[in-house]
Amino acid sequence: xxxxxxxxxxxxxxxxxxxxxxxxxxxxxxxxxxxxxxxxxxxxxxxxxxxxxxxxxxxxxxxxxxxxxxxxxxxxxxxxxxxxxxxxxxxxxxxxxxxxxxxxxxxxxxxxxxxxxxxxxxxxxxxxxxxxxxxxxxxxxxxxxxxxxxxxxxxxxxxxxxxxxxxxxxxxxxxxxxxxxxxxxxxxxxxxxxxxxxxxxxxxxxxxxxxxxxxxxxxxxxxxxxxxxxxxxxxxxxxxxxxxxxxx
Length: 248
Known about the structure:
By secondary structure, this protein is an alpha+beta fold. It has two domains: 7-149, Phosphorylase Kinase, domain 1 (2-Layer Sandwich); 152-246, Transferase(Phosphotransferase) domain 1 (Transferase(Phosphotransferase), domain 1). 35% of the residues lie in helices and 19% in strands. The chain is built from seven helices and eleven strands. It has a five-stranded antiparallel β-sheet with strand order 1-2-3-5-4, sandwiched between helices. A two-stranded antiparallel sheet has the order 6-7. A two-stranded antiparallel sheet has the order 8-11. Strand 4 and strand 5 (138-142) form a beta hairpin. Helix 5 (162-179) packs across helix 7. The longest helix has 21 residues, at 103-123.
């Protein structure tokens, strides 16, 4: 499960400057990633990386501070990972992207796909982190949190009214499918943030509706959503979710 910093774990202000040039050179990241981070520092996308707010096999996400004191999220896809063996499942058949030969080039393609899908979802009215910029294996996007603390995952949230939250998930699910013409392909309570509103995250694997495996991925997403809310007392099945998402 992705890690989320609590207020008790938040570093003190004097400990936050993790990504200044003298520190990022200490092999926290590989050399190519360091160069990308320095590029964004020079462009003013942020002035420091503060601390990680989530991590997984494919990537980790940092909160970063801008010069004006506001925050962005910086997602870094790992070059040294074994998590990309299933690339072809989500890239083959997508006319927007073509498979590359090396793992490094595939990860950069994965990064570009995340940015493109976030852009499409944003334009379709899906509640997602707004994407700002990307380069190679790094995406800079909207930070979603309160008082500098990232919103929790839906899986970690105690809901007063699960049906109301389900309706929000369904609304964003429908917009993803009907407006953005995308299937998230990994929709679950571990890829949804929640604080008054739901936010869909982690979009690199999302495919267009005409993808040869889109139906399979859609059914899996419906099953994940129904299973989660069934456990919380909402009378819903995967078939119900599918019918609503398709609008039939």
